[in-house]
Design goal:
17 helices; Rossmann fold; six-stranded parallel β-sheet; globular; 379 residues; alpha/beta
Length: 379
């Protein structure tokens, strides 16, 4: 029976690969190397994590405390011992074991594949995949251009989108949304969140009687005064100090709200469950914008100089969220843009916008099947 090795780091990668692994497990031997936020999710599913102790080399500590990235496993030794027939890796940023296993796969001559859930993320790894499963035709054009046609591309959609079809509204979120006539989920992931939050709060405070639900990257929120003080590497310490400062600034801005309500959703409620109930989701370039459109919210990409810089860095040179050109995401940069471009809830304009988004982002629930079919061409 052929062996497939899957390497993941964050929850987005877990969401993409877990349904694929479930469908493949009856026909193939599936092994998982997990780090970061994906590790606990795989353990909950009782998958064989990180193979066997004899494959683990290096530091006895499993994780780097601030990032949960692993340094205790050798990709080359793991591949030599396991001898997989195919390796699939994630493309989280900053990439770690995903890239290392990709490069080791290239070195060993083992077929390598990626699943993309965001445009341009194939550029994050220096490894050369044999194939990429991407979200749409535009994603395929970027893959074709980047690899000069030497990598096969399959337009499959993201398997994680299949999961969205089964998301149900959470009663706690529903109750919060009903309290005010205007509710926004703001999803932030890096320093571009600062101008986004400043602009959005300026609009909301002028409007009044609103609820804002902040959902910031857990990796950033995990950086505390204690973790900064404990960091010994000067470069990492400076990065941690910047993250800690930014998070404090966000909390301060939210703490100064006067004309609305800030609701910090408890951790047991997922971002998907929040998105299912709110009328608006505001972010920069995260895949939460695409997911918001599928789940029923109006997604807004709030750009800025640093937002475009970060988007360019993390999305293979793109400076505009691709779904903006299809009318499936609204792009703004100032409170005036937001007021002019984003329709009020329960209006004909809002319903027309939702109809356009639904048409552009329709999903048939078969993305996982298409990815499995692509994978099986390499076994």
């Amino acid at each position: 029976m052929e062996k497939i090795l899957i390497v993941t780091k964050d929850i987005a990668e877990f969401n993409n690969y877990q349904s694929v692994a479930d469908k493949l497990t009856n026909r193939y031997n599936i092994f998982i190397v997990a780090e970061g936020l994906s590790l606990e999710r795989w353990q909950q599913k009782r998958w064989p994590i990180s193979l066997f102790p004899s494959f683990i080399v290096g530091s006895p500590s499993l994780y780097e405390k601030s990032t949960l990235m692993r340094s205790d496993i050798s990709p080359r030794n793991t591949i030599n011992m396991l001898r997989p027939d195919l390796i699939m890796t994630g493309l989280a940023s900053p990439i770690n074991l995903g890239e290392e296993f990709g490069l080791a796969a290239n070195e060993a001559g083992i077929p390598l594949g990626y699943i993309e859930d965001l445009w341009g993320v194939h550029t994050r790894s220096k490894a050369k995949p044999d194939f990429v499963c991407t979200v749409d035709a535009y994603g395929a054009s970027l893959v074709e251009k980047y690899y000069n046609g030497k990598t096969k591309c399959f337009v499959t959609g993201a398997p994680s989108d299949d999961i969205l079809l089964g998301v149900e509204a959470h009663p706690e979120v529903e109750a919060v949304v009903k309290k005010t006539p205007y509710t926004v989920l703001v999803a932030g992931q890096d320093h571009s969140t600062t101008p986004l939050l400043a602009g959005l709060l300026s609009f909301l405070e002028g409007r009044g009687n609103y609820t804002i639900i902040p959902r910031f990257h857990p990796k950033w929120l995990a950086v505390t005064e204690e973790t900064v003080a404990a960091e010994t590497d000067p470069v990492k310490k400076k990065t941690a100090e910047g993250i800690f400062s930014a998070c404090n600034q966000w909390r301060s801005m939210l703490g100064a709200v006067k004309n609305g309500t800030v609701w910090w959703a408890p951790s047991h409620i997922t971002t998907h469950q929040i998105t299912k109930s709110v009328p608006y989701v505001v972010s920069i370039y995260s895949n939460v914008l695409r997911e918001a459109g599928i789940l029923g919210a109006v997604p807004v990409s709030w750009t800025s100089d640093i937002g475009r810089e970060m988007m360019q860095k993390h999305m293979g040179g793109l400076e505009r969220y691709p779904l903006v050109q299809y009318g499936a995401v609204i792009e703004v940069e100032t409170p005036k843009d937001y007021l002019r471009c984003v329709p009020n809830p329960d209006t004909p304009e809002y319903r027309a916008t939702r109809a356009i988004i639904k048409q552009q982002l329709r999903t048939d629930g078969k993305n996982t099947e298409r990815v499995v079919q692509a994978i099986e061409q390499y076994l």
